[in-house]
Amino acid sequence: VDAINTDDRISKLQNDLLVKILSRLSLKEAMRTRVLSNRRVHVWKDVINDHHGHLEKCTIIYYPYQCEDGMVEAWIRSLIHVKHIKHLTLKNFICPFRPNPTITLDLPPESFSHPPLDSLTLSRYNIETSHAFDNCWNIKKLELTGISAGVGVFNVVLMSCPSLEVLVVDINCHKGRGLLKIENPNLKFLYLSCYSIDAIEVSSPNLDILTIGNLLYEKEKVVIASPRLQFYRNYWTTLYAHISYSISCPDQEKKSIGHEFLMRRSRDFLSEFASMSVSVDLANTKEVEMLHEILAACPREMEELEILFKKSNSPRKVETSIARTQKQFWEETKPFSHANFSAYTVRLSNFSDSKEEFTLVSRLITQGMVGKTMLIKPSSFSPSNKLEIEGAVANLNELPKGHRELDIVMV
């Protein structure tokens, strides 16, 4: 080691020359040079300021004791206002060998309001005021994980970001208690995990995905005003995590931002022994593909799966090209044939025994994706429809079951 250090002429250069050399590397490579010698432990930090051009994405994870000189605040200003960063992640890392004081993120007003900044993730901070979030019309994705603040501060932060489409809230109210209000007409994806908060109100008419983490409240303490989401029961009163998802894709060429976010972070939001409520139009092949992706990403064992069958308002004719395409899709693509999950209980709501519904349900049964009970609720209770559903249930019971003890009943 001494011989190598003796010949390390680059580390003997002045800081400005070292920075000039490092600035010709990528940021990732420049940061990795800090392990080469004690001289370079801090020199690489100047590379961010000397880097030419804009940055698309940056993640900074650090120990509190490393940044007592305002360096992180300086980086934030540089990344947002000089480098025009689009996706910024800041994480206060827990050090197991040193005291870990709570870091208060104290930034000037409108620090996060620069137009290019589209996505912001903050982890393990204390926030005393909402000033840094003033006029944040630009932010479409906000993740607050392990954040501690007063409930009033949280409310103002969320009101200051009216363009949010994805919101992850994992927070703790440390000053008093109160009502957390989430009102946003653009929100598509919402994750909730809250501590020391009296009650929660969500009003988001376009919300497609609601993920409930650690959220144990009495029934009346949580109000969800999101008409696209339908619940069999109030899942925030249970001990296990839950996802409610109204699958929709107005544009057949692309999937929603909420769906893309959920699939990209499925390990974070799809937990074992959780429950899921999904509404889907099986006549829409794109929605079926999205449902297939969700179930394929599910962990091996789930507590409960609820599927609500949406009905298309447009008339369906067997002779149409759309109908032929749907038939080809179900016969050749064979969705759900190889899904690797199992739910102890499966609830089927608005069941009408269409070909698509019978095909899906039969695959759930024969592939062993239902562990104990399948409950089928008909779309209507007219005498003729009741007889059809009873016949369908009888046919389903005749299928070879992946689990012998499976009980299939109409409710």
TrEMBL record:
Q: TM spans, by residue?
A: none
- Domain of life assignment: Eukaryota
Q: What is this protein called?
A: F-box/LRR-repeat protein 15/At3g58940/PEG3-like LRR domain-containing protein
- Pfam families recorded: LRR_At5g56370
The record's listing under SUPFAM superfamilies reads: F-box domain (SSF81383), RNI-like (SSF52047)
Pinpoint the F-box/LRR-repeat protein 15/At3g58940/PEG3-like LRR domain residues.
72-229
